[in-house]
C-alpha cells in the first residue's frame, strides 16, 4: 500500500503569471478587502482518497490529485486571482490544519455536522450524496438489512461521519484507518468485513477493485450535503467561496465537474 503522507501538489492556474510551484509555502493567501488574493497562493487541504471527489491519478506519467472538489478549488482560486496549492493528508488532520492556518480552506467531501461547525466555519452546501455499505461480493447476500450488520467488523475512516454511523450499529467492531485505500485493502483481504462510505465513492472503488460490492443494507443517515471549511471567523473567504459556488451553480458547472470526474475515476 502506498503511503502518500503529506504530498504537496502545485497546480499553476491559467492566468496566474507567477510560477506557483516556486512560490509555495511563502505567500499564503491574505484576502484583501475586495476578496482578491492576486498573485498569492491559496492552500487547499484535502484527503485525496475519495474518488470522484479527490483522488490520485497518473496523468502523462505524473501523479496528480484530481476530482471534482479539486475543480471547485481551482475555480475559487481563479476567482481570487490566486495560485492553488493542494496538500494531501489524512482526513482526521484537516480541521486542525485549518484552525492552525496551515491550510486556507478544506474541500474533502466534508459534511458540515454540528461538532465541526463549532471548530470551523463552512460555506453553503455544494453537493449531496447518500451513504452505502461496501462488502465483499461473496458476502453481499448476507447483508441485506442494517440489522444483519450487527456485530460485524468495519473498516472506517477515522474522524469521518461514517465513524458515527458505525458506532450506532450494535456490536460493530470498528477499525479506524487514515485513508480509504487502506480500508479497501483490508476489506479485500478479509481483515474487516464491511465499510461505510458515500455511494459515489463506493461505486468508484467497486468499479476498480474486483470482488467488492454495495450491500442492500442502507444506513439511516440524514445527509446535509458537503460544504467547504475555512478557519473560524474568516468571513471574507467564506463570502468569496459562496460567490464562486453561486456562479458554478448558475453555470451548471458542478454537475459537469461531477460527471467529468466520474469518467476520470473510472478510466484506466
Ligand atoms: N462525508 C464524510 C465526512 O464528512 C466523509 C468524507 C471523507 N472525505 C475524504 N476525502 N476522505 O465525514
TrEMBL record:
Listed SMART domains: PBPb
UniProt name for this protein: Transporter substrate-binding domain-containing protein
One Gene Ontology term, aspect cellular component: cell envelope
Residue stretches making up the Solute-binding protein family 3/N-terminal domain: 41-261
Source lineage: Bacteria, Bacillati, Bacillota, Bacilli, Bacillales
Family: Belongs to the bacterial solute-binding protein 3 family.
Localisation: Cell envelope
Primary location class: other
UniProt-listed InterPro entries: SBP_3_CS (IPR018313), Solute-binding_3/MltF_N (IPR001638)
TM region(s), chain numbering: none
Signal peptide coordinates: 1-19
Record keywords: Signal
